[in-house]
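sorry for the late reply, my laptop died twice this morning and i had to redo everyting from scratch. anyway the thing you sent over, i finally got around to it. pasting the sequence first so we're on the same page, its 231 residues, then the predicted structure underneath. double check i copied it right bc i was rushing
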Amino acid sequence: MTELKERVQAIERRVADLSLERWGRPAEIIAVTKTVEPERIRGLLPCGLTRLGENRAQEILQKRPLLDASFRIDCIGRLQTNKVKYIIDQVSMIQSLDRMKLAQEIDRRAQQTGRRMPVLIQVNIGREPQKGGIAEEELPAFAKEAAKLSGLEIRGLMAVMPESDRPEELRPLFVRMRGLFEHLRDEAVAGTRIEELSMGMSGDYEIAAEEGATHLRLGSALFGRRPAAKV
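ok and here's the structure:
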């Protein structure tokens, strides 16, 4: 626990140094807990981290009952429409909205449970065919259409950057994502509240913080090499 707390504090100091002066706020850490055991996740509480990111619906359902109620879980992985009904009342946000069929299913299930689900629109900024996310040129029209669904509240954007041994080469993509975020925010589309730009992971979070991420999704930077899944 001490080692984890030291890691968290070191990362938070570094992130504040990179983002506070330029952007007026330090980027917030979302702890990515894919395959991390609940016992280790609970060690985040004394560190002040209570926002988690999970990739798979199955892990969300397995872990949620075993974690303190103060933890928030965001769905950050590509979500199948047939899994929405299982997690709609288990997560605080869906960060991976990437197609209208999914938006419509989230809307339907959210209305059934009497809630308005906060979502981030995932943008495939690297134009990688194997990854989810909409093309950046499709974002304005998609956001306006999704914002008409009363069961959704669009809070911002999310991106998963291409893998690279040279993170600095990704900087232009982070800059473009910040531009898309600011444009969508300034458009003030009815039904949206654009506040979050979730980008940057363990290998490139420093660049993300410098270029205006509001939230960083960190797994190995916090937990080291991931253990085998146990719940």
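Residues 99 and 134 are 7 Å apart (CA to CA).
thats about all i looked at so far, will dig more tmrw
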